[in-house]
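thread from #wetlab-drylab

HS: before we spend reagent money on co-crystallization trials with adenosine-5'-diphosphate, can we at least see a predicted complex? here's what I'd submit
DV: go for it
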Amino acid sequence: MDPRLEGEFIAVVNAGSSSIKLSMFSLHDDRRLGPLRLELRAQVEGLGTATPHFEAAHADGTKAGSRDWPVGERLGHEGALEHLVEFIRHEFPGLSMLGIGHRVVHGGTAFQEPVVVTPEVLARLETLIPLAPLHQPHNLAPIRRAFAAAPGLPQVACFDTAFHRGQSDVADAFALPYALFEAGVRRYGFHGLSYEYIASRLPALSPRLADGRVVLLHLGNGASACALHRGRSIASSMGFTAVDGLPMGTRSGAVDPGVLIYLMDEQRMDARELETLLYKQSGLLGLSGVSSDMRQLLASDAPRARFAIDVFVHRVAREIGALAAEMGGLDGLVFTAGIGEHSAEIRRRVLSRCLWLGVSVQDAANRDGPPERRISTVDSRCEAWVIPTDEELMMARHTFRLLAAERKSP
Ligand code: ADP
């Protein structure tokens, strides 16, 4: 047994369509570091594929466990969750779990912040499945399972939409008949936990940006941008679903809705086929025909790989301009997530199209440096930063806060 994993813990579960990630945070009293410390990350990837894989590592990177399943033995979400729970139970019998924070992609209009889940809350979250059919069911399944296995253990739902709920109706509305707006057909915005984490870092890193107008760029497999004004989200590129806005690994981003009507009429595509087209076959993969992975595209000589990158950079630059217009100017840009944190080349190309906004890039800092760093020159009118995101820590913070509040109120 690992002696570090004794005492009180908060678990954070991020269950997606092909993976389940579990992070364990211990509670301690270090004022400087805050009350939560990451101790262990575990994940099962490749669910529903022929090669599911489990891996666990301590916070310092040392291996805590791994497993592969026999080829052809398809592991589902249920089995993966079972394996993760058994792993924690078996390896770390000394820990006491205080509660579990779950990532839930959609909170609709009702849930403006994280919430302790009751059976009633769970029932309401299930009604939102049609708004995020590919994600919400996977997000909710571990909550249901934990309710059944440990009825007294508090569960907290942390929403990807909540951080954006303060946006104005004007920013939220599609110009469709108003009855649809009232029925919930509106922009919600996603990646909220990531943006909230970045916003929480700004006061320490750049007080000017914490109080100013910033475009946050979450560029990973999923990609979006958010206009942050004085720490609050006022607009975002993702809309009713997480397929809107920027091109992504396999998602299209914004498409003229007329294209969909055309495909329905001319190619007789139905809703499921359009869903597969827009979510799985488009974006960087669809344009390049090479890969959904930016690293592979950057390493490729194929003209269409270059074309896909060109389209990506073009759309990101355009979105920055649109969000800067929403805020009436721009004081800073922040890059985060896989591409945003690691690709100096994409950052360079995006920033080279932002000169008109007053960005002056410091090339050496853009290429290399500590994970959290300013990459614009000291005299740059508009600052540019790289800030690694930490959605899991954000969820752990919310869970801890809500559980502490529950303990206080009798
Ligand atoms: P997810 O949205 O699944 O969490 P990530 O945030 O991990 O995804 O981002 C994955 C993307 O980041 C992939 O396109 C990957 O190629 C890209 N990426 C990771 N490291 C680099 C790098 N060094 N250079 C370019 N792209 C990178």
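DV: The mean pLDDT is 93.
HS: ok that's useful, forwarding to the group
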